[in-house]
Amino acid sequence: MTEVVRDRRRIGVVGADLPRQIVLAAGASPERLFGAWSGAVSPRASELLGAVDAVAGRILDSILAGEHDDLAGLVICNDSQANLRMFYVLRVLAARGEVPIPVQLLDAPRGQGAAKQAFVVAQYTRLVDFCRRVTDADIGVDELRRAGDVEQSVSDALERMRERRAQGRCAGTSALNAYRAAASVAPEAAVEVIDAASTPVGQGDRLFVTGSGHPDSSVYQELERAGATVVAEDHDAGDGGWFAGCSTGESEADVLVGLASLHASRPPSAARGSTAERAGTLRRRVADTGSTAVITLARDLDDAPAWELPAMRNALAELRVPFAARVQISADGALSASRDAVTALQEKDGSRR
Amino acid sequence: MTEDRLAAAAAATRHQKAWFADTVRRAQEGEPIALVNADAPHEVLRAMGIPYVVNQWWASIISAKRLGPTSLEHLAERGLPDFSQQYDAIPLGAQDLPAHQRAWGGLPDPAFAIAERSGDVTQKIFELWGEREGTETFLLSRTGADPVPSSWWEKVPRDWEDAFGADRLDLLQAEIEELIAWLSERTGRSLDRDRLARIMDLGNEQAEWNRRTRDLIAAARPTPVLVNDTMPAVMVPQWHRGTQWAVDTARALHDEVARRIDDGVAVCADEKRRLMWVGRGLWSDLDMYRRFHEEFGAVFVWSMYLAIAADGYPRYGEDAVRALAARFVGFTDQLYVPPWSAEWYVKEALAHGVDGVVHLVADDTPGAGFISEALEAEGIPVLEIRANNADSRSSGSARIPERIEEFLRERVPARD
Question: Do B124 and A307 touch (CB under 8 A)?
Answer without folding.
Answer: yes
